[in-house]
Amino acid sequence: MKCIVVLLVCISIGWVHSCNVLPGAINLAKSGDAKQSSTYAPRYSAQAAADGNRATNLLTAPCASTAYDNPAWWQVDLKKTYSVDTVVIVNRGDCCRERLRGAEIRVGNSPDNNNPVCGIINDFSNLITTLCCDGKEGRYVSVVIPGRNEYLNLCELEVYGQEVKAVAGNVALLGVATQSSNYRSEYGASNANDGNKNANMMKGSCSLTGSDNPAWWQLDLKKPYSVEKVVIVNRGDCCWERLQGAEVRVGSSTNNKNPVCGTVTDTSQGTITLSCNGMEGRYVSVVIPRRAETLQLCEVEVYGVEAAVNVAGSGEATQSSTYGPMYNAATAIDGNTNSNMMAGSCSHTGNDNPAWWQLDLKKPYRVEKVLIVNRGDCCGERLLGAEVRVGSSSSRDNPVCGVVTDVSKPTITLSCNGMGGRYVSVVIPGRPETLQLCEVEVYAKI
C-alpha cells in the first residue's frame, strides 16, 4: 500500500517571515546535535530525527523514539542563534500517530526545554506538520509532550531560518558629545568620538575641559544600546595621570549619575578598556568625581548593540469587555505600574471566556520580551495560565510567546526572543475569568 504524504504549508502574514520552505533552503537541524529524554533502543537515537531522511516506518526507517517518559522530549542544539521561520515535523507513519498529540515545539536560547512555544500539534492526521515560528530567535529547538507519560516518536524534524548576527560595533561615532567646559574651542567634546585615536593633545584630536569639579564628558547615543565595553584612549604626550579615578557611567539619565560601568584605576596604559557586560542606556559619561581636574580624552569608543525599548505606550489597547469605565484597556499601557486595582491604574475585564486584552503596536516589531505587572491588592491567581501571543493577526490566535505559570511575584517577564508582529495579546483560555493587568510593557528593537 502506498502512503500518501500530505504537506500542510501555512503562510505567515508576518512582515519578514514566511512558512514557505524555499527551494534550496538549508535544514539547520542536520548540522545540529540532537538529544532526547531517553532512548527506547539504540537504533532509535535522537540524531535519527535530524539525518535528513523523511521515511516514516519506525520499524525500518531511521526514526527517533524515547521510552515512556513524563515528559518525553527531544531537542536539537543548532550551535548558533537563529531566527527560526519554520519547523517541519515528520510523524511516525506505520502506527501510533496519536502519540504526538499535544506536543509543544519550543524555540529559544535555554537548553532546559522551557523556551517560548512556536506551536502545538493538535492535529496528527497528517504525517507532516509545518509550524510557523515567525522569526523566534534561539539556539535550541525542542519537542516536548507535557503532562503525561508518552513515547515520543519523530521520524524527522527540520528547522529553517537565518543566523542572527549581532555585531557589536563602535556606536560612539553615531552619537553627540558634550562636556563640562571647553579648555579652548579646538578641544571640543566631539574630538573624542571622531574616530581619530591620535593621543598627542597638540595634534588637535583630543577633547579637554577646564579644571572643573566634577569634570565630565557625555555621549548621547540617540537611542538605548546594550553596551558591552567602553574603550578610552588617554592623552599620551603628558599628564595621563589626570584620568585616575574617572568613572564611566551608562544609563538613561542625562545627569551623569547613571550606574557605573567601571573606574579607571591604572593610567600606565595608553588605552583603557572597561567591560560593561550589556549595561543598557542611551548616555555614556566619563566623570572625574570629588576633585577639580581637567578631563582629557583622545578617543572614546562604545561597543554595543541596539537595546530593546518599551513600545507599548505608542500602541492602542482593547479588551474583551470592561468591568467599569475606570478599568479600560488603555490603563495597562499608561506607564503607571501601581498594582492596586482600587487606584484606577489597572485594566479589568468582565468574567469572559476567553478573557483577553490586546495591544495594536501600529506597525510590526521584533519583540524581545513582554513584562506584565499583575494585580497586587488581591486576586493575583486569576492570571494563571494566561497566554501572551505575538504576531500579525488581529484575531488573537498568533504564536505563543509564553504562558504565565507563576503569580507569586508582582511582575512577570516572558522572553519572546525577537518574535515578529504588530499585535500583542494576553488571553486566558479555556475558562471564564476576569483579566486584570496593572501594566503591560512590550520591549522591542526600533
UniProtKB/TrEMBL annotation:
Superkingdom field: Eukaryota
Annotated Gene3D superfamilies: Galactose-binding domain-like
Keyword Metal-binding: yes
InterPro entries according to UniProt: BG_Antigen-Binding_Lectin, FTP1, Galactose-bd-like_sf
GO MF annotations in UniProt: fucose binding; metal ion binding
Signal peptide: 1-18
Domain Fucolectin tachylectin-4 pentraxin-1: 25-165, 168-306, 308-444
One Pfam family, short name: F5_F8_type_C_2
Keywords: Calcium, Disulfide bond, Lectin, Metal-binding, Signal
UniProt keyword annotation of Signal present: yes
SUPFAM superfamilies registered for this protein in UniProt: Galactose-binding domain-like
GO biological process: regulation of cellular defense response; regulation of complement activation, lectin pathway
Biological role: Acts as a defensive agent. Recognizes blood group fucosylated oligosaccharides including A, B, H and Lewis B-type antigens. Does not recognize Lewis A antigen and has low affinity for monovalent haptens.
Subunit text: Homotrimer.
Annotated family: Belongs to the fucolectin family.
Protein name: LOC100135371 protein
